[in-house]
């Protein structure tokens, strides 16, 4: 079963057949789903061999008449559109540029039976940011030097009695990272080996006291002017 078939099945579960008859004219819900899927495909940007970013913010513009009909479906339509686009992104190997958001809006300039989809473009707007992950939470690295420790003056504070107030620092130039111990009492470890200074590759984990930290490089999207696609019946 294809994704659009799955969408239609879900829509059938959400509304009864009598209500669905009101959509014999004007735009059909499945056409909105198809337009969103094409928008995601068209604006997907390859930012690395293992990373494809697609827009996360979608605005669906409809005629006033079509918009009123879609609103009658309530949350069912939005839920199905969200599920469909999420499943499509997973199948294609896409990562959304941010939290997924889909909204519908009435536009007096859009003719009945027409869908216009605006999304935030990601091309030439993706940069890479170094972060430190602790217990699933990511802390952004400063552009030059980030101090880690249990002291209140550290840039990243960890509640670990086994760490020094200013335990270690990470030097980050936007492309490469270096981990340096700051003369801590218990040392800084990579693979259970104490280090004084070591290069950090993305995904490297290290230990301060009893705390495990992971260095990651993540894409950051700064949406540029939106793109627009039009679909006519």
Automatic annotation (TrEMBL):
InterPro entries: Cell_Proc_Reg/RNA_Proc, FHA_dom, FhaA_N, FhaA_N_sf, SMAD_FHA_dom_sf
Residue ranges occupied by any FHA domain in the UniProt entry: 146-195
Any one Pfam family match given in the protein's UniProt record, by short name: FhaA_N
Keywords carried by this UniProt record: Phosphoprotein
Domain of life (superkingdom): Bacteria
SMART domains: FHA
Gene3D superfamilies cross-referenced by the UniProt entry: 2.60.200.20, FhaA, phosphopeptide-binding domain (DUF3662)
UniProt name for this protein: FHA domain-containing protein
Organism: Microbacterium suwonense
């Amino acid at each position: 079963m294809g994704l659009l078939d799955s969408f239609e099945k879900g829509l059938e579960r959400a509304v009864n057949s009598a209500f669905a008859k009101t959509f014999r004219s004007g735009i059909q819900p499945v056409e909105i789903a198809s337009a969103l899927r094409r928008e995601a495909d068209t604006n997907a940007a390859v930012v690395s061999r293992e990373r494809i970013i697609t827009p996360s913010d979608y605005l669906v513009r409809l005629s006033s008449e079509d918009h009123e009909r879609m609103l009658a479906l309530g949350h069912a339509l939005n839920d199905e559109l969200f599920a469909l686009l999420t499943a499509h992104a997973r199948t294609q190997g896409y990562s959304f540029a941010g939290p997924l958001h889909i909204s519908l809006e009435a536009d007096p300039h859009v003719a009945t039976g027409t869908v216009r989809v605006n999304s935030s473009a990601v091309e030439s707007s993706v940069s890479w940011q170094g972060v430190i992950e602790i217990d699933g939470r990511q802390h952004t690295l400063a552009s030059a030097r980030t101090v880690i420790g249990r002291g209140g003056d550290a840039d990243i504070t960890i509640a670990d009695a086994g760490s020094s107030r200013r335990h270690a620092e990470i030097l980050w130039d936007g492309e490469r990272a270096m981990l340096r111990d700051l003369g801590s009492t218990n040392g800084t470890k990579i693979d259970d080996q104490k280090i004084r200074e070591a290069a950090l590759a993305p995904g490297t984990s290290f230990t301060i006291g009893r705390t495990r930290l992971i260095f990651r490089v993540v894409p950051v999207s700064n949406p540029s002017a939106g793109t627009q696609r039009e679909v006519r019946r």
